[in-house]
Every structure is written in C-alpha cells, then in structure tokens.
Amino acid sequence: HKDLLGLRGLEKKDIELILDTAAPMKDIIGRDIKKVPTMRGKSVVCLFYEASTRTRTSFELAGKYMSADTVNIAASSSSVVKGESLIDTGKTIDAMGTDIIIIRHGASGAPHLLAKHVKARIVNAGDGAHEHPTQALLDMFTIRERKGTLQGLTVTILGDIFHSRVARSNIWGLRTMGADVRVCGPSTLLPPDIAELGVKAYTRIDEALEGADVVNVLRLQLERQQKGLFPTIREYARTFGLNQERLKRCKPDVLVLHPGPMNRGVEIADDVADADFAAIEEQVTNGVAVRMAILYLMGGTSSGIAH
Length: 307
Ligand code: CP
Hints:
With 307 residues, the chain is α/β, with parallel strands linked by helices.
C-alpha cells in the first residue's frame, strides 16, 4: 500500500503487521533516550485543517523518535487562508521533497483526493465523519495488549456514532480482526446506513453493555451538532453517559476506552475515566507507538519489513 487512507478493505495481515510492529516501538518510547536512526533522511509533514492535540503531536513525536525531519502546517496559519486549494497545497508540500504527508481535514475523502495528486505517501489523520484509521489501530493495539486478542471479543462503541470517524474505522478494523461489534446511541446519532456496516445497533444502553468485553466511549461532537438536535447535553448525559452503575452490565474485567478529548460528566463519568479498567492515557502512549510503526512501514530504512 502506498497510502493509509482507511481501514475499510485493509486485510487482517496488514493490521496484524502494524500492531506487531508497534509493540517494539512502545519500548523505544519507554527509554531514557528516545531516538533511533530508522527514518533518518526522511521527511514527514503534518497538514492539519482541523484542531488536534493527540494525533498531530504523536505523529510529530513518532517521526522525531525515529530521526525523521517533521514539520507541522496548521491550515489556519498557512496560505490556505489566502484561498490556496487542497491540491495546490499538497503539490507545494510535495515539491519540497516530502516523503509522507499526514492530513486531517473536515471533508470526507480529502486524503483520497490528495493521494491522487502527490508523490508523497498519504496518511489519513481523520477526514470528516469518514475514517480515522490510526485512532482505530491504536484502539485495537490497546485492546490486544490488555486482552491478548481481538478475535471473539464483544466491543460496544457508545455515543455519537453519526459524526464519528473513530467509530467507522473501529467498525471496519474490529470486524476484520474477528470481534463482535455493537454500536449504541440515541437514534438521532446513529447513521442511516448502520445496517450496511455489519454491526448490531442499540438505542438502549443497558442492552448494548450486557456482557461487553470492551466499551469504546465516543465524544459527543458538540461542534458538529445541528442546533436544536435531540438530545440536549443534559439529556444525553442522563440517558447515555457511562457510569459505574451502568458498567455492572459488562463483563467483570471490562476495558473502557475513549479516543479523547473527553467531555467529562457528559459521555463519561470522572470515576470511570480515571479507573484502572480504563486505558485512556495508555491509548495516548500507544498512539505514538502505532504511528511510529506506520511511519516505519511507510518509509523506514531497516530491512525485513515490507514497505
Ligand atoms: N483522538 C483524537 O484524534 O484526538 P485529537 O483530535 O486531539 O487528535
């Protein structure tokens, strides 16, 4: 694969290769001196049209830990504000000898469009409500690390499914890896094509949590809600907020994930977010490891890994 645009259609062996490669990368993050020469001489540009803390910073650090030259471009402080198009922006970055472009964009399909016009490899860091493949890969890495496998697990994705690229990438990836995926949220926040995604949809949280091995809680995307949409934040918190009481329906060793940023007290209670059975900070660390693996597989110079 030249690019990583989404998890839909990615084969099990490709996902396993990324997760297997991320494991030794995590050891590097734990070292006192976090520097290996694997990507020396390679250049990585993070091109972000939308806000980010975790994804942008972890890609930058992932590149730096492997000695790549990393550069960040926020669209809001670039010539995009003068009207430069996505394709012209991409070609400009390409012409500087860039090896890998990491792009986040509000429009679904923007990374796919860019990939058609540049020589650099493209990684989708989130496109509209479409896909966020590296988030789903780090989620799967975290689940596999805690549970030993993904095969046969029941994973409930809870919340604003409609606006969620994280949900879509998790659905494709988890299904490929043999997990049983449920989604749950108010009917107004379930996408109309849910039946085509191969998951079971629930509007009652207690049913969706029954016997779950993993609950992946999504952020209520307040910035993407249409005004007046049901439910209100207060109604949502009361009906779908994940708390200790509701978690009793899950398996006793349930694992709770959240991609961040969290609306504490809305989709997740404080004492759930901060509990030992939640892995929210671990997900952030794993995000660096998984992004190191992706950059390495796309451009690293060591032998033994298919590029
Ligand atoms: N989970 C995630 O994508 O976070 P950021 O928006 O901070 O990158």
